[in-house]
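Anyone? Bumping this.
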Amino acid sequence: GQQLNQSPQSMFIQEGEDVSMNCTSSSIFNTWLWYKQDPGEGPVLLIALYKAGELTSNGRLTAQFGITRKDSFLNISASIPSDVGIYFCAGTRMDSSYKLIFGSGTRLLVRP
Amino acid sequence: DTEVTQTPKHLVMGMTNKKSLKCEQHMGHRAMYWYKQKAKKPPELMFVYSYEKLSINESVPSRFSPECPNSSLLNLHLHALQPEDSALYLCASSQVGTEYGYTFGSGTRLTVV
């Protein structure tokens, strides 16, 4: 099925560093969501974005809904070891609001 | 209650077995979903139920049979599975329309032997 283009695929960073990841699509999306998944668990919703240009924060996490509605980014500031996991972007298109389309994921590893 | 509960957490079944996965939520969500996730891949949509009626079947083989007995419960009946069906099966729920985001369960790790 269709996937969003998510990058980078993986990141290995030092504790305390900032992290940025993004998703792009050739289609317009009306919702962008960012999830984190730990091994053996289901994805957990971090941030939901509903309007083009919207910038939303959740603690050390900040995400933005791109103006073109075809992209979104997630920033994590001052990373800590518990930030380790797989981060997925996901979105819904106007013509298929029930179907959450996922990016391929960004695997984050944090070196203490 | 803001959780989606899935049972069992792990399941090993033979190719001739019949088993069921269960999912329960008490958030008043009227849309429920089954997703399949292979290792190192994103979740892939299988089925969508809206107001207890099947609204989307993503061309899933008939050996997977979903059921929504009421607004809080979602089952996935499994029969004659293949080893390649081994995966993490995730249930999710949302208010109708995904604009509020899904809440996912922890999943059932299925191994077909």
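Late reply, but here is one note on the structure posted above: Residues 36 and 44 of chain B are 5 Å apart (CA to CA).
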